[in-house]
Amino acid sequence: MPDVFISYARSSARPAQLITEALRSEGYSVWFDEDLPAHGAFSAVIEERLRSAKAVLVLWSKDAVHSRWVPAEADIAHEAGTLVQFSLDGVLPPLPFNRSQCASAPGWAGDFEAPAWRKVAASIAELVNRAAPAPSGAALPAATSVKAAAKEPVLAVLAFDNLSSAAELGFFCDGVAEEILNTVAQGVGIKVLARSSTFQFRGRDKAAAQVGAALGASHILDGAVRRSGSQVRITATLVDCQSQSTLWASRFDGDLDDVFALQDRIAASVADALKVKLLASAGPAPLDPATYELFLRARGVVNEADGPFDEASAAAIPLLEQAVAASPGYAPAWELLALVRARVLRGGHRQGPYEAGRAGVLQAANAALALDSRRGGAYTALSLLEPWGAYAARGRLLERALALAPNDAAALSGLSTFRWSVGRFREALGFAERACELDPLAPAALLQLAEMRAYAGDYEGSIRMAQDLHRRWPRNFQILVSLLNNSARHGFWDAYEGASKAAEAFAGEGWQRADLHASQAYAVALESGDAALQRERLRRYGAVVERTGTVPLNLVEAVASFGMAKEAFALAARASFDHMFDPDGPLPSAYFPGVLLSPWANSLNRFPEFVALADRMGLCAYWLETAAWPDCVEWTPYDFKAAVRRQHSTSGG
To answer: Residues 6 or more apart from 167 whose CB is under 8 A from it?
Structure first.
């Protein structure tokens, strides 16, 4: 009796072989059809192994969906309660298997640390070992890699304590720790958690067991910095979270001129202790201490800003401009300057003409890449210069940024948002999961994951996660308004009632309270089914078009949720979307077309008329250019691809 039976289409033979080898290396007995004996009937042997297996892993692909054998094998496993599903190309399983959980990793080629595979491995382990199933809505187990995720160290670099007499040198201590974090994060075979999560632990909260439990870290690096004039002393300690034993500790003394060397020595010592190989450094240009201090101060300002587009981050620009003027060969300063300039430009906080601001971003990004071609942040900055309707160009730049920094939580979140905006929800979910693994205490990243779970079809899990986030961050406006809208949209009225009470007590800014009240009015109209209330919402949304000339797409989606598809299309037809192709257009937080590409039962994409609207937003051109089709091709009751081709041809695209 095999532990695992693998079902797959012949075109997926290579991934099936990789998975078989990996599972066998972990001690599982695995059967797939290369193990057919020379004697015996083909179908009889397969069915015998299939029915006796403890877990049946179905590798879905487009070919598997249309196979004679794979759906039949999945059906037997589904009836037996042994089915585990893994989509290799992002395709949804066919009915009725699309109602069961299916991990998805489009383009998977053997990455056994990918979040999707770790989920598959957890399910296999549970079935084979007959572990008690997790309660409904619970998080999947953390240790879920066939390649023993516990063997891969997960490092949390904490904010170093300031032991100097000057309290204002805290930014310098944080900067030293962040530089070490960034260096170790470039290593092979290690996961380094983001500073936005790890730097939340300070002072008495630094106990190894507490940090390890909160972050899922296997090790923590803690330290302290004492600075007196030009002299620096850095102490650092590496601790195993499980045993709470110190693996390595040392003290490093030097002059401020030596701070780069000191940081590199600490990073190398940590890597050696964890058996991690660091990538060769590009080697920063010589930097005087005063310039380095400017850079660290600027980065501290950016890190403390309330989100990337916060106006406060603009205060970093003059500091960075001084830094690059003093040391024009320092690539990190140019990279950060490009990012901050781009965020200020696109966030509506710029001073002076747009073209001058755009030129400043290009100058800084190009300077950073000329000095060090591995500066992924420069590509993120360049992506912000593209019009929001330039999907292909933005996608390529964001993909390049992530390729250069594959463990950058911000880059992962950015690509998740982009994939969502063009309707590729399962891919968006995968990127969001990876971002949260690296930044497990970041509210924005966790909220992105909660929302992507709904777009991937897990409505209950999405709402339960959003409720948990609201309990942890009750004053976070974005979490609260998301919980209000989505619990109403998906009919989780108990969750909505709790969120609505919280909204009434919310003491945010005036515009925040107005948005919360608008969400409540939408929910009342939706739940009651009152035609008069729904018409009033439509009238108000129409007034937005009259006042601004355009319409946030979430309002169009809201009208559709009332069952008023005709009126929703008419509302969108009155609006202009020219701003989506204007490099100087507004930041489109409410303009992302992902809200209209959703799998909801009354989503507009289920109507053929939707394709014309998508064409107006530039989506048809993007889908045809890239052949990266949205997930809705799998549920629209018409040939979505053919309709896109016809529409784009008719419109002269």
So the answer is: none
Contacts of 224 (CB under 8 A, 6+ apart): 160, 161, 162, 163, 173, 234, 235
Alpha-carbon distance values, 248 to 120, 202, 332, 357 (Å): 35, 20, 29, 47
Instruction: For residue range 267-296, list pLDDT tens digits in order.
Output: 888 888 888 777 665 555 567 888 999 999
pTM for the whole structure: 0.76
Of 117, 122, 84, 118, the closest CA to residue 100 belongs to: 84
H/E stretch holding 269 reads helix 259-273
DSSP secondary structure letter of residue 87: E
Cα–Cα distance for residue pair 505/547, rounded to 1 Å:
30
Give pLDDT, residue 130: 45
- Summarize pLDDT for 70-93 with one digit per residue, the tens: 988 898 998 888 999 998 887 888
Q: Tell me what the mean pLDDT of segment 41-65 comes to.
A: 80
Cβ contacts of 185-189, under 8 Å, gap ≥ 24 = 185/407, 186/278, 186/279, 187/271, 187/276, 187/277, 187/278, 187/279, 188/276, 188/277, 188/278, 188/279, 189/152, 189/153, 189/275, 189/276, 189/277
The Cα 562–Cα 530 span in angstroms is 10
Specify the DSSP class assigned to residue 314: G
Phi-psi region of 423 (alpha: psi -120 to 50; beta: other; left: phi over 0): left
Rounded (10°) angle between helices 289-304 and 170-185 = 90
- In 483-575, at which residue ranges do the beta strands (DSSP E only) sit? none
Q: List pLDDT tens digits, range 404-449.
A: 988 899 999 999 999 999 999 999 999 999 999 999 999 999 999 9
Contact between residue 604 and residue 558 where contact means Cβ atoms under 8 Å apart? no
Handedness of CA 228, 230, 233, 238 (dihedral sign): positive
* Residue whose token pair is 């501290």: 300
3-class secondary structure, 157: strand
CA 390 to chain centre: 21
Given a contact cutoff of 8 angstroms between Cβ atoms, the answer to whether 439 and 194 are in contact is: yes
Residue 295 CA to residue 614 CA, distance in Å, equals: 44
Mean pLDDT across 199-210: 85
What's the mean pLDDT when you consider all of the chain? Answer: 87
pLDDT of residue 39: 37
Going by C-alpha positions, the residue among 629, 395, 329 that lies closest to residue 403 is 395
Tell me how far CA of residue 525 lies from CA of 491, 528, 569, 623, in angstroms.
13, 5, 19, 35
Locus of tokens 């670099």: 157
Q: Give the containing element (helix H, strand E) for 293.
A: helix 289-304
The whole-angstrom separation of Cα 550 and Cα 582 is 14
Distance of CA 160 to CAs 157, 195, 223, 323, Å? 9, 12, 5, 24
Contact 177, 201 (CB under 8 A): no
